[in-house]
């Protein structure tokens, strides 16, 4: 009697786990060349970019970054950059930091290239928006370890699975902020474009995108920050850089190297954040230079 | 020149609006449609803005006037009915044809200016031409000309945020004028400006319109503005036109209590023009004998009469005493005793400007067109009558007809 009762209460088990395994197997068996291509492409891009960033002496790169900081934001930021990067170099974490920078830049670039067009589509089409939103929610809430496992199976250990996970994790805000930015453009502006006979594409490129730029750039900034927050997790699957240094320090219980490499991540994060948040906000020398230029040249 | 004609235009928002239009036509109450989740914004609106006319649509917020103006250039498609621009039905046009029509025939000025903050003033003004594909150097020259027209030469390289509200809207106007389209849609164009600037802008529009003679459809919630600017005015309430007529027609005979309530607040002396209140002028021709002038004066109980030349142009006036003297001396022509200092006014002069003249000289004010032709005269009595509320007399029809003809020209 109780057995029957229990059996009746028991829900049938839905084998989602098996499906996921089957799906990953299928990917592995059928998309081999594509996966290989992705691995090769990301490895190549990573090697080239980190090679470029570590090719000059750390002092030279530090100086160049300080100049960039001055142009974009001003003296204070330049000074911070100079001291911060010099500190990292003196600690001996300059190469891993440049590797991390390279990975963050590649991941952000991929994320933005994918996210901005999706954001534009979502802003223009309610149906797209309604499909995209839950997918983004899923991407943001799914613990990164969950897709790290199949990523390693598909791409093996190295830069690629970490990079892919980073893209998945960092992409949503860029889509959301692009969509939001375009939706927030004053409808009268869009009407003005239409009233003068501008076709949809010109309304998009001439009015909506420029006016949504601060929001889109905030998305870019978010992407970069989220990419950075993934470095340790990505480091666990063999992505080179500061993440790996931290992971090693954690597994070996080394407090000193952990603190040093952690500080390096913080310095890099502040540098990249201040750098990219300036683009949309229109402060700093860059935008001050750009304005009079566009005024006279056009 | 272009005409814009709305023919039985309906615009409903909500679901299944086509059926709802049929229901409305069959007498379903508007509230019932609201309960079904349908908002009727424009209901069975028909009018024609004639070439060179300033046609004003006046209504409070929610009366459907902004929706209506957006159906005129296809920003909104009517649920039912047609909009004809130069006799072409834009509701049947493809998206591409509509764009072509907007580029070449119609431009628009917006309530909140809708200037592009990331473009310079010159680039804003050149926008319509750029969309049309006008070559770069022509386009910049035209933008500069257009800015000069609205009095903003020298501001070309500034950005919109550096300008005051009034200046920004002049840029908006310049942007619309730069395309040299025949039709200008103005959606509450001056409503966001403070009263003094608004007056300036109205004056500027009136003087520009005198020069350019565009077909203007102007939306406003301010009846004073409507009557200052409009050759004819359509008053909208809850999506329908409740009255359509000239300023004087609406002032003299409000269609219902709703319109009457609005009219109460109108400063008649500022919105009524000399042309609108002018009565038939009694004239003699230059070469006619003084006896003829006396006869006209006696016949109409006047103390003086206007003297015109062979083209109806005003020469001056002749008073009873002088005409009598001339008749006694047996002068052949009345022209010899003309007093050339007769007070005059332009057709578009608001009558508030005539009070002082009328007070100083007892003589009627002659109303002239641009060619100095005599259109009519305003006596002190006519001036007072125009200010009175219920003013219906035999000459009103004639005078209204006269302004009607004048604005059609």
TrEMBL record, chain A:
PROSITE patterns: ABC_TM1. GO terms for biological process: choline transport; glycine betaine transport. Keywords: Cell membrane, Membrane, Transmembrane, Transmembrane helix, Transport. The chain crosses the membrane at residues 52-72, 77-94, 100-123, 144-171, 223-242. The keyword Transmembrane helix applies. It is a multi-pass membrane protein. The keyword Protein biosynthesis does not apply. Belongs to the binding-protein-dependent transport system permease family. One of its GO terms (molecular function) is amine transmembrane transporter activity. InterPro entries: MetI-like, MetI-like_sf. One of its GO terms (cellular component) is ATP-binding cassette (ABC) transporter complex. The lineage of its organism: Bacteria, Bacillati, Actinomycetota, Actinomycetes, Pseudonocardiales. Residues 97-276 form the ABC transmembrane type-1 domain. This is Glycine betaine/proline transport system permease protein. It is found in: Cell membrane; Membrane.
Automatic annotation (TrEMBL), chain B:
GO terms for cellular component: membrane. PANTHER family: GLYCINE BETAINE/PROLINE BETAINE TRANSPORT SYSTEM ATP-BINDING PROTEIN PROV, GLYCINE BETAINE_PROLINE BETAINE TRANSPORT SYSTEM ATP-BINDING PROTEIN PROV. SMART domains: AAA. GO terms for molecular function: ATP binding; ATP hydrolysis activity. Residues 4-263 form the ABC transporter domain. Keywords: Amino-acid transport, ATP-binding, CBS domain, Nucleotide-binding, Transport. One of its GO terms (biological process) is response to osmotic stress. This is Glycine betaine/proline transport system ATP-binding protein. It comes from the Bacteria. Belongs to the ABC transporter superfamily.
